[in-house]
Amino acid sequence: MRGLAAAIVTFLLSSAHGADLDHRAYAKAFTGIFTALQGADFAALERMHEQFLEPDARALDGTWMVQAFQDVFESSFRFEAPAAIEKRFAGWKRLAPRSTLRPIAEAFAWQQRAWVSKGSRRYAELTSAERRAFDGLIARAADALREEPAAGARSPLWHTAAILTAGAQARPASDLDTLLEEAVRRFPAYVPLFAARMEFLLPEWGGDFAAVDRFVRTAMEGTRALEGRAMYAWLYLEIARRYAGLFDRSLVSWPEMRTAFEDMVERHPDVWNRNVYATFACRARDAETTLRLLGELGAAASLGVWSPGVSTESCLRMVRTPPPPSRQS
Questions:
Q1: HSE-CB for 203 with a 13 A CA cutoff
Q2: Which of 255, 270, 278, 286 is 20 to 30 A from 154, alpha carbon to alpha carbon?
Q3: 3 state DSSP class of 148
Q4: Is 0.85 topped by the overall pTM?
């Protein structure tokens, strides 16, 4: 397993620049991180983390390569037993006592265990025993982040974990806003930071989609100099990954999302983004935009991401049949 991790790490570190990295490279990063984590190759994890902190370590689709660590941590620890988590991090600490990545990974691990214990229920719906268990796990995440706060803050992962932890501790909205403001001063267009803050505006945490929409628009304006209106699309895609019926349930505006997608693909012209754009144009029944994007994609068309029931074939049928008017709100 370490041999595979080493090979992937070598490939990624030799080409960790936006001009060389498409969406497939991000998938390779995920595999390399996952393989190194499972094989306890902590040195490889540290090397990749340092490399992915470089300002140009961003894929063509706009995804920051360092985000692959969060994706791996959240998927790996979600169902791992607490005793196994403790053993893993004790070993990591013994082999790399000065690691700045380990406390971040540990924070995500305990957060994920807390999220699993809560399920889809609101915190207020938990029994007193379940609340104590949830709070205890989140307290362990907070303890991990306090180990190396100055060194850890070099990574956007630390800030993302800090926002998620503070929100789960039911700290005031002003505290979460302050954490976000501090984070975006260092990492002004790192989407997971905004997604972490948006988490606690969702109905599961007592919020609503009106608050989400206000937040999305504020985030879009705050990142406009760097990303145009793309943040609007990125954050509503986060909502689409969580909820079916994006256009029915949330306050997303398709005309505004379409403009946001245009800014996204102009700045980050990876074929992945064009397929995502085409998928949501199809979901919005925007036949004109869908047809144009299908033509641009050609044989690379692969629609349907985060959209059960949507496919390239179903969207081709939609554009060939006179559709109802496209979504306007």
A1: 8
A2: 270
A3: coil
A4: yes
